[in-house]
Design a protein that fits this description.
Blueprint: H1 3-6, E1 7-15, E2 20-22, H2 24-33, E3 44-46, H3 53-71, E4 74-76, E5 79-83, H4 87-122, H5 138-141, E6 143-150, H6 155-159, H7 165-209, H8 224-239, H9 245-253, H10 255-258, H11 262-267, H12 269-285, H13 287-291
Helix pairs in contact: 3-4, 7-8, 7-12
C-alpha cells in the first residue's frame, strides 16, 4: 500500500503580533555608548507594560494549537503526518484548540482600546498611539490554521516526466530511500515516546513500592503516568506508519497495566505491584528494540 493511501500530511501555520516596537532612538544611544555597529544593536519596547496578559493569552493559545497538532501527529519533515485512522482525533483536538484561540483573541480585541491607553500611560511618555496597530487589524495580525494534504510518494509525477526509463528509475530509487529515512524517523519518534512513558511508569511505581521507615512521610503517588500512557496507547496504532509489529505487540503486553483506572491504581496495592512487574517485564523484553 502506498504511503499516500495510509496517511495525510498536516501542516501548522500561525502568525502573531508581539505587541513590541523597535526603539530606534534607544538603539542609536546604545550603539553610540558601546561603540557598536548600529545594525547589531536591536532594542524592542513592550507596548503593553503592566497590561500584557491578554496578549500573552493569545500567544499562549496559539502555542497550545501547535502542541496539540504535534501531540496527535508524527514528524514527516518538513511537515508532519497523521495516519488516516488518526485523522478524526487530530482534526477534532486541533479544532478545539483553535476555537479556544479564537475566544481569547476576541477577548483581546474587546479590551484593546483600554489596553492601548493603559500601555501608553504605563510607558511614562515612551509610547505613542501611532505605534499601535488599529483594532480592526487584529484579525489580520493573528491567525492559526491546520491544513491537510496528500503524502506524495513522488512516483506518480516521476512516471509522467519525459525522462528516460533509466533516469526515472534512478530518481524513484532515491525517493524510496528518502521516504525510508523519513519512515525510520517516525519509528524512532515512536520508540522514544514509548520509552519515556515506560520510564515514567517505572519511576512512579518504584517510589510507591519503597518501604518507608516508621515516622517518615510516604512519597506521594501520582497516577498521571497511567492516564498519559492510556492516551498514548489509543494513538499508537495511528502513529505506526512503518507498520512495525512491535508497536502492536507492546500494547498487548501492557494490557494488564493499561486496563486499570487511575482510581484503582491509586488505591490498590495489588494493582500497583502487578503494574510494576508488568512494566519491568516489558522494558526487559523490548529493551533491544527500543534501543535499536
Amino acid at each position: 500500500m502506498s504511503l499516500k493511501d495510509k496517511a495525510l500530511s498536516c501542516t501548522f501555520t500561525s502568525r502573531a503580533w508581539q505587541g513590541k516596537r523597535l526603539d530606534r532612538k534607544l538603539r542609536t544611544e546604545i550603539a553610540t555608548t558601546h561603540d557598536t555597529d548600529i545594525e547589531i544593536a536591536k532594542v524592542t519596547r513592550n507596548l503593553f507594560v503592566g497590561c500584557d496578559q491578554p496578549l500573552k493569552n493569545v500567544v499562549n493559545a496559539i502555542e497550545r494549537v501547535r502542541e496539540t497538532h504535534e501531540y496527535y501527529s508524527v514528524p514527516w519533515p518538513p511537515h508532519r503526518a497523521v495516519k488516516i485512522e488518526n485523522y478524526p482525533i487530530h482534526r477534532d483536538k486541533t479544532k478545539d484548540a483553535i476555537n479556544a484561540f479564537q475566544l481569547v483573541l476576541k477577548e483581546f480585541y474587546d479590551q484593546y482600546p483600554t489596553l492601548v491607553q493603559r500601555g501608553i500611560l504605563n510607558s511614562k511618555g515612551l509610547a505613542t498611539e501611532d505605534e499601535y496597530i488599529q483594532q480592526e487589524e487584529i484579525w489580520d495580525r493573528f491567525a492559526v490554521s491546520i491544513t491537510y494534504g496528500q503524502l506524495d510518494d513522488a512516483n506518480d509525477w516521476l512516471k509522467a516526466t519525459l525522462l528516460s526509463p533509466e533516469e526515472v528509475q534512478e530518481l524513484m530509487d532515491q525517493t524510496k530511500n528518502s521516504q525510508q529515512e523519513l519512515t525510520n524517523n517516525v519509528l524512532e519518534h515512536i520508540k522514544v515516546t514509548i520509552a519515556k512513558h515506560l520510564l515514567d511508569a517505572r519511576e512512579a511505581l518504584t517510589k510507591k513500592s519503597i518501604v518507608v521507615q516508621p515516622g517518615m512521610p510516604k512519597p506521594r503517588f501520582h497516577t498521571a503516568w497511567l492516564a498519559n500512557f492510556q492516551s498514548l496507547a489509543s494513538l499508537l496504532p495511528g502513529f505506526n506508519l512503518p507498520d512495525d509489529p512491535n508497536v502492536a505487540a507492546i500494547l498487548v503486553d501492557l494490557e494488564p497495566t493499561l486496563k486499570h483506572t487511575t482510581d484503582t491504581m491509586k488505591t490498590s496495592e495489588v494493582a500497583q505491584a502487578e503494574a510494576l512487574q508488568n512494566i519491568l517485564a516489558v522494558i526487559e523484553k523490548y529493551r533491544g528494540w527500543l534501543n535499536s
